[in-house]
Write a structure and sequence with these properties.
Length: 83
């Protein structure tokens, strides 16, 4: 579930960037962002990172929270997707 939430955040971030660049209407832009996400390896990278985070931190909420935020930062669409 965490993996899906992170991917959704990153897709919406990418859609927002595309909208700022005049990428068309919201629905069209969101569809384009989803397709870019699907064609990249970001889902695999995030899935792996989240599994490692849970394995390392278990139910320690503070450490897990910090690691999840790090995963989001490391996989921001501005770095992962070519805009």
């Amino acid at each position: 579930m965490v993996k899906h939430a992170i991917v959704c955040l990153l897709v919406f971030e990418h859609a927002y960037i595309l909208m700022q660049q005049g990428g068309g209407g919201w629905e069209e832009t969101l569809t384009m962002a989803v397709k870019k996400c699907e064609s990249s390896d970001i889902q695999t990278a995030i899935s792996t990172a989240v599994k490692v985070a849970f394995k390392q931190h278990g139910n320690n909420g503070e450490d897990l929270h910090e690691t999840i935020l790090k995963v989001i930062g490391e996989n921001k669409t501005t770095y992962v997707f070519s805009v």
